[in-house]
Structure formats: structure tokens, C-alpha cells
Amino acid sequence: MEASQARPLDYEGRELPDRHEIVDSALVKKASPSYSHGALQGTLFSMLTPFRGPRGKSRPGGWLFGTEIDIQLASGQRYVPDLAGWRLDSFEASDLQVFSGIPCHQRPDWVCEILSSSTASRDLGTKKRTYHLAGVSCYWIVDPTKRTLTVLHWAKDGYQRALGFGVNDKVHADPFGEVEIDMCELFALLP
Questions:
Q1: How many other C-beta atoms are found inside a 10 Å radius of the C-beta of residue 96?
Q2: Which tens digit of pLDDT belongs to each residue from 98-115?
Q3: How far is residue 134's CA from residue 109's CA, in Å, rounded to a whole number?
Q4: In terms of pTM, does the model score above 0.90?
Q5: Residue 96 pLDDT > 90, yes or no?
Q6: 33-186 sits in which CATH class?
Q7: Among 173, 182, 90, 105, which Cα is nearest to 139's?
Q8: How far apart are CA 16 and CA 79, in angstroms?
């Protein structure tokens, strides 16, 4: 993916052109997702359903989730992560309007990027550094080719690899340790 040429970056408060991010102050087009990418994104989102919304007697809850949300974390860095999550206990009910604007300026507590050949270097490089500097406490990286999940935790000097899981594992991973994620099920719809 190449930075678009001679485009002004005056998108504050406005939507970016479809399938674009601002990376290192350059407007960068994202490729359309493959079937595998979309299937993983949808499956993981549905697996996290017990965490969506307020906590309940029979569910962990406590999170807001979104897919492909336009988020500005730093000057010159405006990303559209595959999945992002915010802890509800970080907000008063009246504070939820922070999600009504474009871009969202509220730092997520969790981000998940699904690697593809066109995005892997940014997801593992610039985006990873920006998420860390912004204080995103947990960063998940899903690799559909290797069929792995890597869980990174925020640490002072950079993300630390906390856990790595393969296709045959059952996962209880931060910040969603209360619910088991079956990695075989996560990757089941991939060709």
C-alpha cells in the first residue's frame, strides 16, 4: 500500500475516504479484506459477545466493541483497527458521546489486528508503536496464515509478548480470560 500523492490531511472531524488510514502523516489506502480476514474478524467479534455491554449475573460483560472504527491516537496517526474494545468502567454513562464523532479520540483498552500480506509490516511496526505510545494495554495479533494468536501486554519499554496460541489451543487470554476461546473454532471457516 502506498501513500496517496499530494493529498491534504485536513480530515479532522471528518470521515476518511473509504478504506484509508493516516499512517505517519500520509494517507494510506487499505486493501479490501480477503474472505479469511473477514471471516476471522466476524468470528472473533462473535466469540467476544459475552463481554459486550454491562456486566450481568451470568456474563462477564463490561466492554464496548467495534470493528473498523476510525480512531485517532496521535498526531499524524489515524487508524482503522480490525477490532477495538473499551472497558465500560472507564466511562460515566454521559461520557459515551465520545464515540459519536469521527474520528474517535478515545483510546481503546484492547486492539486486535488481523495480519495480511499488505498490512503486516504496519501492524507489527508503526501501528504497534503508536498503540503502545497511546497506552493501549493489550494488543492481539491474529495471523491467518500461521493460524496463531499472539497476545501482547503493555510494558514501559514496549509491548511484551505474554502468550502465543496455535490452532489446537483453548485460550483464556487477557483481557478476556473469563471466557474460553477455541482456536480451532476461530480458524474453522478458513480455506
A1: 13
A2: 777 788 888 999 999 999
A3: 10
A4: no
A5: no
A6: alpha beta
A7: 173
A8: 10
**C-alpha distances in angstroms, 106 versus 64, 69, 157?**
12, 11, 22
Long-range contacts, 150-155 (Cβ 8 Å, 24+) = 152/128
Q: How many whole angstroms separate alpha carbon 112 and alpha carbon 79?
A: 12
Domain boundaries, the chain: 33-186
Return d(Cα 8, Cα 138) in angstroms, integer: 32
What lies within 8 Å, CB to CB, of 44 at 6+ separation is 83, 112, 142, 181, 186
Whether 168 has a pLDDT exceeding 90, the answer reads: yes
- With contact defined as beta carbons under 8 Å apart, do 103 and 78 qualify? yes
Residues facing residue 164 across a β-bridge: 150
Q: What is the overall mean pLDDT for the chain? A: 85
More confident residue, 137 or 88: 137
Q: How far is Cα 96 from Cα 178, in angstroms, rounded to an integer?
A: 25
Residue pointed to by grid coordinates 488510514: 21
Q: Which long-range contacts (CB under 8 A, 24 or more apart) does 184-190 make?
A: 185/43, 185/47, 186/40, 186/43, 186/44, 186/47, 186/142, 186/149, 187/40, 187/144, 187/147, 188/43, 189/39, 189/43, 190/36, 190/39, 190/40, 190/144, 190/147
pLDDT value of position 72: 87
Task: Report the distance separating Cα 103 and Cα 80, nearest Å.
Answer: 10
pLDDT of residue 1: 41
